[in-house]
Amino acid sequence: MAERLRGAFSDAVAAIAAEDMTARAEAGAALAQAFEQVEAELVVAELTARARASSASPTLVSADIARLDEDLRRKADLVERLSAQVLDWQQRLETLAFESSRALRTEPSAHAERPPLP
Question: CA angle at residue 11 from 15 to 1, to 5 degrees?
């Protein structure tokens, strides 16, 4: 899970560095898709827990529910931490994009007239 999000973030950083708007949009979409996959995995885990609970003995059900509940809490905590990290990364990317854009507007052009070489 975390690796998919890290990979999507790395792609977003590369897209911003390349100043390619299409790549930026694709990287943003990939990051959103990675989050959707994490959410889907959490839903599948919850549905699996419910299915197991309905087909087992009451004693096993209680143990399974407690174990799966703890697993879901850990995954939910992970998603929260990853969400916070992605928001931080997004802010950093936006800052980087803004600073890059500002630097491009304020720095002299690389093609500016230069004095002739002696």
Answer: 155
The 3-state secondary structure of 37-87, one letter per residue: HHHHHHHHHHHHHHHHHHHCCHHHHHHHHHHHHHHHHHHHHHHHHHHHHHH
Q: What distance in Å separates the CA atoms of residue 40 and residue 1, rounded to the nearest whole number?
A: 11
Q: What are the structure tokens assigned to 9, written together?
A: 């973030």
* Cβ-Cβ contacts under 8 Å for 72 (sequence gap 6 or more): 42, 45, 46, 49
DSSP 8-state class, residue 111: T
Q: What is the pLDDT of residues 53-78, one digit of tens each?
A: 666 666 666 777 778 778 888 888 88
**Model confidence pTM above 0.70:** no
| Residue 12, burial from CB neighbour count under 10 angstroms (0-12, 13-18, 19+) | buried
